[in-house]
Amino acid sequence: MFDLEMIQNVYSRMADRIDSARDILNTPLTLSEKILYSHLSVGNADKAYDRGQSYVDFSPDRVAMQDATAQMALLQFMMAGRDKVAVSSTVHCDHLIQAKKSANIDLAQAMDVNGEVYDFLESVSNKYGIGFWKPGAGIIHQVVLENYAFPGGMMIGTDSHTVNAGGLGMIAIGVGGADAVDVMAGMPWELKFPKFIGIKLSGKLSKWVSAKDVILKVAGILTVKGGTGAIVEYFGPGANTISCTGKGTICNMGAEIGATTSVFGYDEHMGKYLRATGRVGVADLADSNSALLRADTEVIAKPDQYYDQFIEIDLSDLEPHLNGPFTPDRATPISKMSEEAAKENWPTKVQVGLIGSCTNSSYEDISRSASIAQQAVDKGLSIKSKFTITPGSEQVRHTIERDGLINIFEQLGADIFSNACGPCIGQWARVGSEKEEKNTIVHSFNRNFAKRADGNPNTYAFVGSPELVTALAIAGDLTFNPERDYLTNDHGEKILFEPPVGVDLPENGFSVDDLGYQAPAENGKGIEVLVNPDSERLQMLSPFEPWDGSNITQIRLLIKAKGKCTTDHISMAGPWLKYRGHLDNISDNMLTGATNFFNGKTNSVKNQLDGRYETVPKTARSYKAAGVPTIVVGDENYGEGSSREHAAMEPRFLGVRVVLVRSFARIHETNLKKQGMLGLTFAEKSDYEKIFEDDLLDFLDLDSFSPNKQLTLLAKHSNGTQNEILCNHTYNQAQIDWFRSGSALNLIRTNSQ
């Protein structure tokens, strides 16, 4: 068991800090407030914080990093001047393993191709006191849930789906690598105090409905930006009917509504899961502090008085959903899919069904899916689609193999991929995707942006529960409703599926030969971390230049992005993952997926220095070489999706000084600030229309940059006219200091000297 002493310390101070907060606020507390106020860096609360307004310093209990983001995070940490991490921290090697053939083959290939990166991460972890989870050990969020998450704790992770730990009652927040550096360096971690969305669950899930359908429904209600700046807190009698891993599924996909995080109050399901995963001591502590680990009774009784937004969902009325295509918030009940697909002209033949990933690879998920697969095998149904399984951890994989579940899937013809992210993040070598043919896939992952899974912009991806995906893959038909529709087996007989059945925890307990964990050296001072200066994969960082305090003028427009511009559009994953530790090389993917407002094309912008249309990175490098500052203009919810700080670092590296948009996704806005960028929003959203391709832009008042004061941009048009554009910002004084210093890291390093 990891970190028992640290967890004991958290619980030992929790009651006093909660009482202090309750006295100051003079009101009953939500669960989220209890956890936040018990993790203030100042200790006991000395004032009330304004929801959605106050910037607050916290002291998280731990940090987790996946291998793609850990490279840049640790390269930054090495510049911070510290000998050892200040809090419990781990690295998880899950993103760089490409799914192609089978688990063993793909893992061996990954070890060969990524050996340099794994060696770097292992040596840095060993030197600075960081736990290292080897390739094949599992997906970061599943491993965290199985080993580290605990009710009432607070953690940050360099991946947006860190929020998975909310299924164990933890406030777990996805951040950029620079935020992780703050915490690992022993600095307070800053977060705008969130608002709170309360979701009361009543009733009970029916037979074909799963926890996944809860969040698919919620995404349909709140949309991809409806949770921005808020914590979603689930409660009610219906919540108590959902397993711990089911709760994790709901919290995990909460990242797709922009929520800061999601969380459930402690219940018996969490206690059972803690004990099943070998954390009896933590379960005992949680049981004895259970009143602290859920919202106050007054909040539960009158939620509309204590949450900023309140939603009630009757689980008994819920039906299986499919969300998509191309966005995770377009929610369609399976009973309406036939009608919707016909109206929208979606391809209905399912080419591939994929289950697993960090959000849906629990024993419960796999066992319910296996029950459908077993019926197909027993009843002579041949599967009509390709089918893949991605286990979430070695512990889950080993256990489902022991219990015969993998054998069931293999009888159906499924491919078993490595315990890694794989297709969910574009690490899928799908045969034929380069043809860019229009096709449909269904999966139990979270994200379904264009090109996300296989690089094909014409792949229509729909998100559903693992059991529904399994049924649809067998049927080969997007419109198939397993609750009412019959299939014809190999003998010409009509077959109706029985509802899926499964168990939340294995009857014979979890089993594993090797978790894949490597503890760091007790003293890492003598360990040398080497980076080959000629490496294509890794590059030591140089500090960004500080701001000189004057107005930035003669700014050129690099790109005005039209419509959805996620972190995938700003910094693609897939084949670019291999460059996550090399800022110069990976910057060649910057904004290559964004649509240029002026010509409707991707990766084609006008270079004002010569009038030619070039790729975005090439044009940016041209401006940088000429000493010309640039601006990126964007639409709503700019930076939606991953916590990918490369989406902020690449523009900073290539000379972009300002990102001006209609609205930001939370993590991306913070990442821009951390890297010494200006992240601004239009005071009047319609002013987006006043930026033209040939503009020159000047700041008129940046030299008096201060909190709560608008900034003014003068847009000078090629026809001789001009517009003043008022810009809002959310910078406090500490964040302005980051900008002045050139980055937050620059300031940390200066303060440590």
What does this structure look like?
The protein is α/β, with parallel strands linked by helices and 753 residues long. It folds into three domains: 4-316, 2-Layer Sandwich (Aconitase, domain 3); 321-495, 2-Layer Sandwich (Aconitase, domain 3), CATH 3.30.499; 555-752, Aconitase, domain 4 (Alpha-Beta Barrel), CATH 3.20.19.10. Helices cover 31% and strands 18% of the residues. The strands form eight sheets. It has a seven-stranded mixed barrel with strand order 22-25-26-27-30-29-28. β25, α21 (646-653) and β26 form a beta-alpha-beta unit. α1 (4-25) crosses α2, α14 (363-378) runs parallel beside α17 (466-475) and α23 (733-741) crosses α24 (744-752). The protein is globular. The mean pLDDT is 96.
In short:
This protein has 753 residues and is of the alpha/beta class.
Give the count of structural domains. Answer: 3
Low-confidence stretches: none
How many strands, what sense, and barrel or not for the largest sheet? 7 strands, mixed, barrel
Beta-strand proportion: 15-25%
Distance between the termini: 36 Å
User: CATH topology of the largest domain, which one?
Assistant: Aconitase, domain 3
Q: Shape, please?
A: globular
Q: What is the CATH class designation of the largest domain?
A: Alpha Beta
**Average pLDDT taken over every residue:** 96
CATH homology-level superfamily of the largest domain: Aconitase, domain 3
Strand order of the largest sheet: 22-25-26-27-30-29-28
